[in-house]
User: Fold these one by one.
Assistant:
Number 1:
Amino acid sequence: MKDRHGRVHRSLRISIVDKCDLRCTYCMPEDQHFLRREELMTRDEVMAIARLFVERYGVDKIRVTGGEPLVRPDAVDIVRDLLRLPVKLGLTTNALTLDKHLDALVGAGLKSINVSLDTFDAERFKRIARRDGFERVWANIRLALERGLRVKVNMVVMRGVNDDEILRFVELTRDHPVHVRFIEFMPFAGNKWGRERVYTYAEMLGHIGSVHSFEKLADDPHSTAKAYRVCDWPGTFAVISTVTEPFCGTCDRLRLTAEGKMRNCLFAREEMDLLSALRRGEDIAPLIEANVLAKHAMLGGLPPFKPEKQEEVLHDLSARPMVSIGG
Ligand code: SAM
Ligand code: SF4
C-alpha cells in the first residue's frame, strides 16, 4: 500500500495493551491513565484487523507490542493467532515475566523477540524503570537465548543517565549472539525530552570506535537501524538514529494502538479509529487507505529534531506518550 510520497508500507506494529508492569521515565508519564478493558481490541478484533492488512494490503511483517504485551492474559493466544498469517512476526517486551510465557511462545512458533534493557546496574534500572527488575530481565534474556530465540536488546541512550554503559552493551555482542540496538532518546508527551539529553548516533560511533574496531553491515532496505559488528564477535550492534538522522524516506511502518486507532507514523498527530468503525459493522478499508495516503514526508509533520527547533517540537508533539502508541 503506497502513501502519497510513493513509499510502500508492509510492516505493522500492533499494540495489544497500554498498561505496563514497568514505568520507564522516557516512555510513561507519572500520571498515566490506562484504557478500560472494553476499550481494548479483543483477540478476535486484533486478528480481524491484522488479517485485512495482510490479505488486502500486503503487510508481511507484524510486531506485537504495547505497553507491555505480556501483561495481557491472552497475549500468547494473540501471538499464536498472528503466527497463522503469512508474516514475519516479532514481539517487543520488557521481559520481566518472559520466563512464564517462553515455552508457550516458542511452542507457538515465535522465533524472535526484542527486549528493552537500558542498564546493567540494578539501582539504575530502578531509577529508569521506576520498579525493580534488572535481575529478572537479564535472566530472561539469557533464557530466551538458550531457547534459541533471536534476541534484539533495545537500549535507549540518555546523556548523563546511561551513556557510560554503551561499551558494556557492545561487549554483550562478544559474549552472546545478541543484536544490541542503541536508540536515540525520542520526544514523546510527558517524557521530559530535551535535545541536550540525546546522546547522538555520531557520538555513539565515535565512543565505540575509540575502543573497538568495527565494520558496517548491510542493512535491510526498510531497516530503521544501522548495523555494525565488532571483528568476528557473534552478535551485532546497531543505532536507531531517529533524532539526528531520521530514516523516514525508507520507512514502511504502520501502527495500530491498543484501542484500534491507526497511526501512519510514530510521531503522527492524526489517527483513524478503525475499531469503532469495525464495531459498527462498517468497512474499515477506506479508513486504512486514507490514513496511509495522508502520511507526512518526515517525522509525522513535526519540525526536524534540531536544537534550535526544540521548543517547536515539544509544542507540536502528539498528546500520546510512547507507552500508549506502541513502540
Ligand atoms: N514494553 C515493551 C518494551 O519495553 O520493550 C514494548 C513497548 S516499548 C514502548 C517499545 C520500545 O520503545 C522499547 O524498546 C523502548 O525502549 C522504546 N522507547 C520507549 N520510549 C522511548 C523513547 N522516548 N525514545 C526511544 N525509545 C523509546
Ligand atoms: Fe513499559 Fe516498555 Fe514503556 Fe518501559 S518502555 S514503560 S517497559 S512499555
Number 2:
Amino acid sequence: MAGRTAPPTAIESVLSETRLFRPPKAFASRARVPDLASYRKLYAASVRNPGAFWAKQAGALLWRGRWKKALTWDPPFAKWFVGGKLNASENCLDRHVATARRNKVAIRWEGEPGDQRNLTYEDLLRETCRFANVLRGLGVRAGDRVGIYLPMIPELPIAMLACARIGAVHSVVFGGFSAESLRDRMNDAQAKVLVTADGGWRRGKIVELKAAADAACAGATCVEKVLVVRRTGRDVPMTAGRDVAYEEAARGVPTRCEPEALDAEHPLYILYTSGTTGKPKGIVHTTAGYLLGATKTMEWVFDIRDEDVFWCTADIGWVTGHTYVVYGPLSVGATVVMYEGAPDAPEKDRFWDIVERHRVNIFYTAPTAIRTFVKWGKDYPARHDLSSLRLLGTVGEPINPEAWMWYHETIGGGRCPIVDTWWQTETGCILISPLPGATPTKPGSATLPLPGVVPEVVGDDGKPVPKGKGGRLVLRKPWPSMLRTIHGDPDRYVSQYWSSVPGSYFTGDGAHRDKDGYFWIMGRIDDVIKVAGHRLGTAEVESAIVSHPRVAESAVVARPDELTGSAIVAFVVLRGGGKGDNALEDEIKAHVARTIGPVARPAQVQFTELLPKTRSGKIMRRLLRDIASGAKQLGDMTTLEDVAVLERLRAEYGEE
Ligand code: WT7
C-alpha cells in the first residue's frame, strides 16, 4: 500500500486507542447539533429521504430561480438542483452586504512581512466587481477558463469570486508548483487568461511567480492575456500585447457588476489533483451542490457563529483553501484570517502570534503542521494567549494519536473539541467528521459520516467487511458537493472512481470501522502518496525522474516519515547501468523539484541495476515499499521474476 498506510500491526495498535473525549458541556449547550441523539436523528432523516432532506438544506443558499428536482442520478453522473439559478459570488458577498454584515470584516489578511489588510464584506464586493469588470474587459465570458497563480493575498479570493460572478471557471494552481506544472494545467483547462503577481513573500524571499508564469505561457498558447497583480512592488518583465498590470487596468473601472444568474450545474471551478497515472486530473465542481456542501459543513462541523474569527491555514491552491478559506466561510458571512507566508517567519511562533492578535476562535490545520509544531516545542505556543480558541480541526491525512493529544492539550488548552475531518479534492467538502457539540471523539478517528453521506468499508469483492476489519473506503450514494467529472475526460472519471467497486465511489483510501461505527482512515491504497498533506501521484514523480537525461527507469514509493507522514523514496536505474554518486542524487532531487515543485522532491534516491518485476514486467512496488520502510520480512515474492535483484537491492538500500 502506498502513502501513509498502516501495516496490519499498526491497525491493531490503533484499535487499542480507547481514550474518548466527550464534547465539553459549555460547547455542546450552544452548538447547532447539541448531542449525539440529534446527530443520529439528522443522519437518519438524510438517508431515509435524501431528496426531501437536501431540498430543505438548499434553503441555506440564495437562489435566483427555483430548482425543480434535488437529484438527477444517471450513475455515475449526478446533477443537483436542476433548473435552479444562483450565483456563488452573490451568495458569498451581496447577500451579506444587504444585511448588518455589510461592515463586518470578511478577510483579515496578514502578509508575511507584517503588512495587514482588513476587507469588509462591502469592500470585498466592490473589489470583486472591479476585478470581474476587468476580466470582462479582457474578453472573459461565462464558461471560459481563467487560470489563477497567486500568492496568498486578498486578490486570490477576489479573482475567484470575480470569475464566479461572471460565470467564468477558475482553475487555481498552487504558487509552489513549477512552470511546467502550471503549463500542463493551463493547457488541459485551455485557460484564456492567467492571473498572476509580481511575486509573493515566503520565508523572507520573493517567490518568482511571474517568471514561472512566463515560462508556462511559452508552452501554453491558449493563454491570451496575463493579468499581473502587484504584491512586492518589484518590476517584472511585461510582454507587450499579452501582459496587463491589474492596477492600471482597474483604474476607473466601475465597482458594480451584476452577478450572472447561473445554472445550478454551471461549473464553478476546475482544480487539478494527482491520481494514479502521470497526468493530473482536472476535478470539476459545479455551483449549487458544491456551495451547499461548503455552507452546511461550516455549520455542522465548525459550528460557525457570527462572532467567530475562523482560520484555515491551508493555501487556497488546494481544495481545503477553496472550501474553507473562500466559499464556505464567506457563504456563511464569517470573518476569516488569511496569512501569506511560512509558519516560521520570522519565528516559529508566527501562527500563535496570529491566533493571539486576531483572537482566532476556530483553527483548522494539517497533521503534518501539528507534528512540526510538536517538534518545535511547547515554548512557542506558550509565548501567546491562545484562550480565544474554542474549536480545532485537522485535515489531509491520518493524525497520529500523540499529535492529536498534543494539539488538544498544548493548543486547545484541553478545552477545545477537535474535529478530524476526512474528505478529498473530489468530495468538495468534509464528509466524515465529528460534530463538535455532539460526537465523542477518539484520537485518530474521523468518527462518523455527515448527513447524507453513506460510506462503507468493503473487501476486494465489494462486499462490506466485518467491523474491525480493514478494507476499501467507498461511498454508496451521491452527495451534492461531489465532483461531476474529470475535465475533458468523462471516461477517466468513470474508470478512476466508479469501476473498482461497481455502483460505488471508490475513495482510494483504506479504512476500518470500530464497534461504535467510527471510521479510522488508514491512508491511500492506490499509487498516491501524501507528503506533508500534499497529494502526489507516484507515476507523476516517476515521469519527472525519467525525464532526467541520465535516467532509464524509476519506481517511486512512500516510506513512513515522522514529520511529513510519508516521504518519497525513488529507486532509479541509470542509462547504461552503473551507480550514481551523491552529486547525481542531488541533481535528480533538484530536477524533480524543478519539474513538479518542491513538494515532490524525493527524500532519498536509491540507485539500482534493476527493479524487481513480475514475469509480465510489472514493477513490484509492494516489495520496494517493504525495502524503503525497512521491513524485516518482505512480502510474498512468488511472482517475482528474479529474486536475486531484490536481495541485492535490500542489501544495498541506504548505503552510499
Ligand atoms: C486524501 C485526499 C480534502 C482535504 C485535503 C486533502 C487523505 C484527508 C484525512 C483525514 C485521514 C485524510 C485521504 C484522502 N485525508 N483528510 N482527516 N484522515 N486521511 O485533499 O489532496 O484531495 O487528499 O487525503 O487519503 O483520500 P486531497
Number 3:
Amino acid sequence: MYILAPSLLGADFTLLRQQILAVEEAGAEYLHLDVMDGRFVPNISFGMPVIASIRRASELIFDVHMMVREPERYISDLGKAGADIITVHQEACAHLDWTVRQIKEAGMKAGVAINPATPVSALDCILEQADMILVMTVNPGFGGQQRILYTLDKVRELRRILDMQNIEADIEVDGGVTADNAWEFLDAGANVLAAGTSVFKGDAGKNTREFLNICKEYEKKQKSERNKCL
Ligand code: DX5
Ligand code: ZN
C-alpha cells in the first residue's frame, strides 16, 4: 500500500483547518507532523498543544516525526494529544529499543528515523520491532530543501533487507519529495511519501490528488509485474 503523508510544516499556518481539510478531502490518509526542539535540529516548530487542537479537526492518521532529543519524555503526552504513529530518531535516543517498546505499549505505532549520514546498518537490531522506518532524504529541520540523492541508495538497501528478512515495516521518505521525483522514491522501495512544500504550495487539494494518482499508477505497475511472474 502506498501512502501520502502531507507534512503540515509546509502549510500556511494562518489557514491550518482549511489546509488540513483540503488534503483530507482529496484523499490523503496521513498527516505528517514535524515536532522540533531547537536542539536535535536547529529549528523549533510546534508541539502537543497544536497537535491536540488539530486532532479535533481531523480524522487523518497523525504521523508524528519527533526531531527532538530524548523523545521518550513526550510519548505519553503525544498519545494524549492524538498521535497515531510516533517516529523517533535513532540518533536522538540513548535507549532506542526501550523507546520503541514504550511507544507500542502506549498503543501507538512506532517509527524509527535515520539522518542522511546514518547508515542503514544502525537499525539492524530494531527492524523487527519497528512499524515504520523513516529515511531522511534531507538533513532534518527545514522544509523546502532539495533531496540528497545518495539517500535513495539507502532506501533500496533497506527495502532489500526488509524483503530478505520478511519484515513488513513501512519505509517512509521525508524531504524534497515532489510529484516529479515521487516515482523514483517508490521504485527505490519507499511506500510512505512525506511531502510538505510540494503538497501545500499552491492548491493543496489538487497537489494531493496528483500525488495519490502517482501512487495508484505505481501500485498498478507493481501488480501487473507480479502477475507476469506468476
Ligand atoms: C524536515 C521535515 C519534513 C519537511 C519536509 O526536517 O522532517 O517533514 O516538512 O518538507 P519538504 O517536503 O518541503 O522537503
Ligand atoms: Zn518530517
Number 4:
Amino acid sequence: MKNFDIEDPITKLNQVSTKRGEALIANKIFTLKDLLYYFPRKHLDRSNITKIKDIQAGNKYNIVGRVETCGERKTRYKKLYQVIVSDGTGLLTLTWFNSSTHIKKLVKKDDQIAIHGKVDWYNGFSINHPEFDILDHQSNPMNTGSIIPIYPLSIDFKKVGIEQRLIRKLMIQIIDGVTDFDDIFSDNFLVSNALINIKDALSQLHFPSSSDNLSSAIYRLKFDEHFIQQMFLGLIKSKIKYTKSTIFKDIGPYFQKIRDDLSFELTNAQKKVIAEIHSDLKKSSPMNRLLQGDVGSGKTIVAILSSALAAGNNYQVAVMAPTEILASQHFNAFKKELSKARVTCCLLVGKMNKKDRDKIITNIKNGKITVVIGTHALIQKDVEFEKLRLVIIDEQHRFGVDQRNKLTNKGKNPHLLCMTATPIPRTLSITYMGDMDLSIIDELPKNRIPVTTKIIDSNRLGKVYSFMNNQIDDGLQCMIVYPLVEESEKSDLAAAVEMYNHLKKNTFSAHSVGLIHGKMNPEEKKTIMNRFKQNEIQIIISTTVIEVGIDVPNATVMLIEHAERFGLTQLHQLRGRVGRGKEKSYCILVNRGSSERSLSRLEIMEKMNDGFKIADEDLLLRGPGDYIGFQQSGFVKYKIANVLTDGPIIRKARAIAFKMIHKDPHLESHIGIKNLIFKKFRKNLDLINLN
Ligand code: ADP
Ligand code: MG
C-alpha cells in the first residue's frame, strides 16, 4: 500500500490517468484532500428506499430500479423523453420535457437507476424531472446491503470514466494511504463537544458503517463549516470591540425636542431599538448594528433620532441610500424633523450642478452641515467631513462591503447603523451578518389597515381594471408592476411599454398614466415619481422593483403582473408600497404560471402579512442561494452545511467560536484554526486582527 501526504496531487492515485486528472482539476480537485472533500450528494440506504408497490401520488420517495425502456415522444406541444423503470414490484414513468438530448446521453436501457422526486399519477405512477443517479452493481444498496454514497457526476466526469465506482476506489486509496489527518480540534475539544475526529468523519462519510456513524460524520463536517464561518465573524466583532470610537456622552438638546414634537407615538419596538442604539453610542467602540424592520415599520424616524443624538454631541452624520428617489425621500423626512431643532442637513446625489455641489462639499468639510443624505455620490473622493461619527446605510444589502467601508473611512471609526426592510431569517442573519448586532422592529405602527391580497387569473384583469378606475375616481392611486427578466430584458421592457400604451389609450384613458423603468436616467425617474406623489399621475406602470421604499400614502392598489416570477420577499416589498395611508389597500397578484407549485407559493402571500414569516417560507422554497444579496456577497459556499436546517449546529458553533475568541483573541493556542482562517478568508484579512 502506498503512503500518501494529504496534500499530494491526485495524479498519485492509481487509476487517475492524465485525462481523468484533467477532468478532476477542471472541477477544482487538485489534491487528495480536495477529493476527500468531494462529498456525496446523498446516501442511499435500504431503509430510505421505497418499493414502487408502496408509493402514493403526492409524496416524495427514493426509488431504485432498472430501466426497462426509454425513448422520445412528441405531443402536440412538446417534445419529451420518457423512461420506464421497474423494481420488480411495479412500474414508474420518468418524464423530461425539452431536455431530451441531455438525458438521452445519461440514461440507457438496463441501467440501474436511483430516483428521487415527487410521485404523480397520470395513468400510472410518474415523476417529472426527477433527480437521479445511475448506479453500478456496487452502488445499489439492494444488492450490497450497505449505505452507499452517491457522488455528483458531471458529463465531463463520465466521459473519462469517472463513475460512482471509480470515485469509491479512489477514496479507499486515500483513506487507507493517508496517515496525517490534521484535525483543527484537539482530542479534548472533540470529546467535550461530542464530536468525532476528522479522519473518522471523512471515512464514515465515504464508507458509512451504520446510519448512526454516518450522522455523526455529517454532524462533524457541518460543524466545521459553520464553526469556521462563525470564527471569522467573531474575529471581526472582536476587532471592532478593540477599536476606539467616539463616545456620545450627552443626549443633547435635539433628540428630546424632535421626539416630543412627533405627530405620532413611537411604537414599543421603535423605543426598544432606539434604546439599543443609544446604548451602543455611549460605548467607546464603534456601533456595528443592523436594524431590521418590515416595510412601513418606521425605520426612518429611528435613523432621524439617532442622527439627532450625533448632532447633539456636535458630530456629523452620513446617510446613504441606494437610489436618488430614496435619498431625496429620506432628505425630505430628515429635513422635516431636523429643522424643528435647527439641525442642518443637505442632499448630495450624482446629478447636481457644479456650483451647488461645490458649496455643499465645502460646507460638509467645514462642518456647517451636520447631516448629509445621499446616494453613492457620498463616497466620491472629494467628499470630506470635518467630524463624521455616525454612518447610516439604508437598504444595506444593495451596497457592497467596499462601498460601506469607503463611507465609514471618511470618519474616524464612526458608528455604523445599517437598515434593511428585507426580513432575514435568523439562521441566515447569524451566518451571513453575524458580525453585526441585531435590532428588530417587530411591530407596525397602530391604526394600519392590513393590505388585502388576491391572486387572480389574467382573464379577471378586466374586472380589476374597472375596480382600479373606481378607486381613482375616488381620488386614490394605483401601481402596476411588470417583472424584468435579465436575459430578455429588452423584450420585457418592450412588453411593458406596449402595455403602457395600450392601458393609457384604452383602459385608463380617463386618467393620467405614467411609465417608469430601469433604463431611464435618475432625473427622469425622479420627475415621474414626483408627479405620482403629487397625484398628477394616477397610475404608474413600472417594469420592475425600481424603487424600494417609496412612500405614497395615497396609493391603494398594487397590481403585480407575472407574480409567479417574483420571489416572495420581493412581492412582500412591493405590497408594502400600498397600505401606508388611511384607506384600505389591495395587492393583486396576476398568476400566469401554470404549475401547482407557483400557485401554492403565491397563496402564501394571500395568507401571510408578516415579512419574517414570508422570508422563512421563501427561504424554504428557494434556498439561500437565491436569497437577496447573498449570492454576490462573496461568502464561502458550503459543501455540506445547510443554513436552512442547521439552526442548532450554527448556534452551537457560534457559541463555541465566540468563547474561544474571548479566551484567546489571537488564536495563539489554536494554530490549526488560525491557519484555516488565513486560507479561507485570505481576501478579507483586513477585517480581522490576526497575525
Ligand atoms: P420603513 O421602515 O419602511 O422605512 P418608514 O420609516 O418610511 O418605514 O415609515 C412609514 C410611515 O410610517 C412613514 O410615513 C412614517 O412617518 C410613519 N410612522 C413611523 N413610525 C410611526 C408610528 N410610531 N406611528 C405612526 N406612524 C409612524
Ligand atoms: Mg425605509
